[in-house]
Amino acid sequence: MLKRIAIVVVLAIVGAGCQWLRPQPGFGPNLSVVVSPPGAQGARIVDVAAADLPVGTAAVTTVRLDGKHGALVATGTTLPLRFTFDVGAAGPGSHSFWAQSRVVDLKRRGIGSYDGALRVNQLQALGSHNSYHQYPPPPLDGIQQLRYFEDPLDVQLQSQGVRQFELDVHVNIAPTGTFSVLHIEGVDENTTCKAFVDCLTTIKTWSDAHPQHIPIGIQLELKGADFAIPNLPYRPWVPADLDTLDATIRSVFGADSLLTPDDLRGSHATLPEAIAADGWPTIDAERGKAIFVMDNGGTFRTWYRAGHDALQDRVIFTNADPGAADAAFIKRNDPTGDFNDIQSLIAQGYITRTRSDADTVEARANNTAPRDAAFASGSTWVSSDFVVPGRSLAIFGTPYLVAVPGGTPARCNPINAPSWCTSNLIESLP
Q: Going by C-beta distance under 8 Å and a sequence separation of 6 or more, which residues neighbour residue 18?
């Protein structure tokens, strides 16, 4: 019954809109009403224009919400008219702007609409750093920077609310075309899933069993030898390995289980153009999927973009420079030093990852200031080595813990989510 009522309401709005826009005596060409993707606090920029009139044409313009008799939301004296609309005032759901201008004695009308559904970049979720890591063997287990460990990836997803992982990926000598996940070759190799494909399968299996989860972020750091240790079963990366990496990911995650650069870009030439014009897809459209991002910049990014400048046909979003053709994800690991930059990037529509702690320094000192700054910055993902209550207490004797405020796996992003957003709209697993 509710579905039938919704259809009737939509048809009524469409019918009223057609009547509103129908040419009549004394009316000129219709106005264009363009609504931008959500920005800071979810606000929408609305542009009302007449393509055939020069900029600055005198025009008495009114814009109303959800109908010709709706609430007045903007007025102007010239065309084009641009205004910022607080979507919190309208609430969730689809809404429309009904514009009317009087130019001399001629009226013009136009309608623009937006879908109030929450977007992928309007959430903030918990991540784990070196998500596979286990204690190294003695005597390396006494090194303070390495004294952290993580549970298997599916346990993190199910019991710890983790929705973003970091995997360090190394190229195996044999079997050809395979990869391993570990920290430091020949030194710190203990891991919950040594084979890269096993790590991916663990995530995919949990995902299939919980298809209503938000997109799971999987950050890949492509690594090689840190020390000159002979006879290890790994080799340096070459450009062709990146094609194999894409194919390996696709062998586990099918097209319907991935949010890729092509999905975001659509018909646009670059990823920033797509973000500015259309924005990220809705959370509901991307539930049950994974989004892969690259930790590396420099040479790896250059190799990955060769022939794929805007990441055409690629799986992984690169760690890019703002405004570049491949820019959609940007890493900013210092939540205090990068605080203002992160907030700006989030308001512009990028997704970001930051770290609340590094090398166990904050956990040992119980220094929660970087953690608090990380969440306040609005970074899409906040990554930590200490997402389990009591773990830092057992290792270092401090109560240090990183969790999403409110205790949910994800929450409404404090920078760009609308005021009506609630955490259960982001993810509410049974």
A: none
- The one-letter code for the residue type at 229 is I
In tens digits, what is the pLDDT along the chain, a chain of 430 residues? 434 444 443 444 555 677 889 877 888 899 999 999 999 999 999 999 999 999 999 999 999 999 999 999 999 999 999 999 999 989 999 999 999 999 988 999 999 999 999 999 999 999 999 999 999 999 999 999 999 999 999 999 999 999 999 999 999 999 999 999 999 999 999 999 999 999 999 999 999 999 999 999 999 999 998 888 999 999 999 999 999 999 999 999 999 999 999 999 999 999 999 999 999 999 999 999 999 999 999 999 999 999 999 999 999 999 999 999 999 999 999 999 999 999 999 999 999 999 999 999 999 999 999 999 999 999 999 999 999 999 999 999 999 999 999 999 999 999 999 999 999 999 987 6
Rounded Cα distance between 361 and 216, Å, is 27
Contact criterion met (CB below 8 Å) for 109 and 24: no
Helices (H) and strands (E) in the chain, counts: 12, 17
77 secondary structure, DSSP code: E
User: φ, ψ for residue 104 (rounded to 5)?
Assistant: 55, -115
Backbone angles phi, psi at 23, to 5 degrees: -60, 135
CB count in 10 Å sphere of residue 255: 9
